[in-house]
Write a structure and sequence with these properties.
Layout (H helix, E strand, L loop, with lengths): L14 E10 L10 H11 L5 E3 L5 E5 L6 H21 L3 E3 L18 H10 L1 H4 L6 E6 L6 H8 L3 H8 L4 E2 L2 E2 L5 H6 L5 E2 L7 H13 L2 H5 L3 E2 L1 E4 L4 E4 L8 H23 L9 H14 L4 E3 L6 E3 H11 L1 H7 L2 H4 L2 H7 L2 H12 L3 H13 L4
Length: 377
């Protein structure tokens, strides 16, 4: 099997979700590098769970099996979170999730002992060491590689929509950055991260990846870390735009929206319809506006540079995706998206608490509390 050319085609539009959560000290609210210990103990009690060590030793990645829809995925993640929480609390720790921690010092947070992580740090130095950031990765099954890049290019037109709803990283090293998603700005500093190029075909992507191998880039990083990328081994498109949400309820909404969006574009191909695209500079501007302004972003919606408020766009997008949600069986989960519009995104809730207390510790407490209170299913 050629790891670049061969795409393990998925006959059904399946969903897999990866959610990154962390361990915090309930007294200091700082991150605690004890993930390996908690993972090992949890899996000893529950060997059926799929838990992964991540880039930092404070992080536990929860990985679903292949699911039919967001409801199945969130049911699995809810049960896994419950079991991990029990072990963490026995160890005197709390679970916390967001796009970025508002005050921890990256110099105090050790890497997990994995050679590819060490290679990333060796190559990227200062910027790589700052990668205290956490996200949601949604894998959606695609039936043929020829569909991959038209769909990815179309998904990129909805970048600020997915980001605004999930944005939850306004603080960094004790400061309010003024951004809804500081995670987005930090992560793109890595040389293999950020927006994918708008490849026109699968062959063009294969040529690109072979160039990366020949030039040694992949040897240093293990893979390309684009915001949306093909996962040829699994036969999926992996959407990595969203900040990690603090809770399962919003995770359900983001997962359903992402799943429905990809399937919607796949069905447009079936109907012979042209998929939307934006000029690369418009995509880049929208990404920045989503990271900076979140729910208050005015986004570019067409190649003619028309603009609209992202909240209006999101409301209409939910309506557009209703038929797909009915087919996939995730109408209830997609119906949680308007809740976020009403309640405010994670960055807004964190910032409100910070402005009252002039301290980020209550914002960390808020995210910990939401992980147990804003549940689903």
């Amino acid at each position: 099997m050629d790891p670049f050319r061969d795409f393990a085609r998925s006959p059904h539009p399946t969903l897999g979700v990866e959610w990154e959560i962390c361990l915090v000290d309930p007294a200091t609210r700082d991150l605690v590098p004890r993930a390996a210990e908690i993972i090992d103990e949890t899996q000893a009690r529950h060997p059926e769970l799929h838990l992964e060590r991540e880039f930092l030793q404070n992080t536990i990645e929860l990985v679903t099996p292949v699911c039919r829809n967001a409801g199945e995925a969130i049911a699995y993640l809810g049960e896994a979170t419950h079991k991990v929480r029990a072990v963490a609390e026995e160890a005197g720790l709390r679970l916390w999730a967001s796009g970025g921690h508002p005050f921890t010092d990256f110099r105090t947070q050790p890497l997990s002992p994995k050679i590819t992580y060490q290679e990333i740090i060796n190559r990227t130095q200062y910027w790589g060491k700052q990668m205290l950031l956490w996200g949601i990765h949604c894998h959606i099954g695609i039936r043929h590689e020829d569909r991959v890049w038209p769909i990815i290019n179309a998904v990129m037109t909805k970048y600020p929509h997915l980001l605004a709803l999930s944005a939850s990283s306004p603080g960094w090293e004790g400061l309010d950055t003024g951004y809804a998603s500081n995670r987005t700005m930090l992560y793109q500093q890595l040389p293999t991260a950020g927006m994918p190029y708008q490849f026109a075909s699968w062959d063009e992507w294969v040529g690109f990846m072979r160039d990366q191998q020949t030039s040694g880039v992949i040897n240093h990083t293990g893979s390309m870390h684009f915001d949306v990328r093909p996962a040829a081994k699994w036969g999926t498109i992996e959407v990595r735009i969203s900040d990690a949400t603090s809770n399962l309820r919003e995770l359900a909404a983001i997962s359903a929206l992402t799943h429905c969006l990809v399937v919607h574009f796949d069905q447009m191909i079936d109907r012979g319809e042209e998929l939307p695209t934006l000029q690369p500079w418009h995509v880049a501007e929208n990404k920045w506006r989503g990271a900076r302004y979140g729910m208050e972003a005015l986004v570019i919606t067409s190649r003619e540079t028309e603009e609209r408020w992202v909240t209006e766009e999101i409301a209409d997008l939910v309506d557009t995706l209703q038929p797909v949600a009915e087919q996939l069986g995730c109408v209830d989960e997609l119906g949680l998206v308007p809740e976020i519009l009403e309640r405010g995104a994670g960055y807004q809730r964190q910032r409100r608490v910070f402005e009252v207390h002039q301290d980020w510790k209550p914002a960390v407490d808020l995210a910990c509390d939401e992980l147990t209170s804003l549940t689903w299913g």
